[in-house]
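seq:
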Amino acid sequence: MSADDVAKYLGKPISWIYANWRVQGIPFKKVGNCLRCRPVDLDEWLDQQSP
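struct:
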């Protein structure tokens, strides 16, 4: 998933994703200049978040 896909999935603006991915620990990998995230990793990360 791209950062744009993750933003849509989480219901957040893309600017929030770029500003907070490191702080929030969103499981992105940098591929060149792009951020990529596997859907399974994102779902695991979501399961670990406090309500």
